[in-house]
Design goal:
62% helix
């Protein structure tokens, strides 16, 4: 979804921990009011809010915003369609993580069983 061709015109994300809404706006080529609207529409987007309700986005938030931007502006998705696509990808990611955890637990249980049989 986030192929290099879709975001060539966007600057690289600096190695900072937190970004202000103005910085994210510049990094993603999206106006701040659009970012605030997307926060309401996409549950994946949860910037940290500090004193005075100032938003501080993390690197993962910037990546999600770029994905949303790509889906809406480049791929022609609607807000609802983009939300569904992102939710579906999260579910697949969660499933693969669950499968990895299950494999690891099985492996550990097999090792314990071998020890008990000695």
């Amino acid at each position: 979804m986030l192929e290099p061709g879709n975001n060539d015109e966007l600057p690289p994300i600096p190695g900072k921990r937190y970004f202000t809404i103005g910085e994210v706006s510049d990094l993603c080529a999206v106006k701040p009011h659009v970012l605030r609207y997307w926060e309401q529409e996409f549950p994946q987007l949860k910037p940290v809010k500090r004193r005075g309700n100032r938003r501080y986005y993390q690197r993962q938030d910037v990546i999600v915003i770029r994905q949303i931007r790509s889906l809406l502006y480049d791929d022609g998705f609607t807000i609802g369609g983009a939300r569904q696509k992102l939710t579906g990808e999260e579910a697949r990611s969660d499933l693969s993580q669950s499968q990895q955890i299950i494999k690891q637990v099985r492996k550990e249980l097999d090792e314990i069983l071998k020890l008990l049989r000695r």
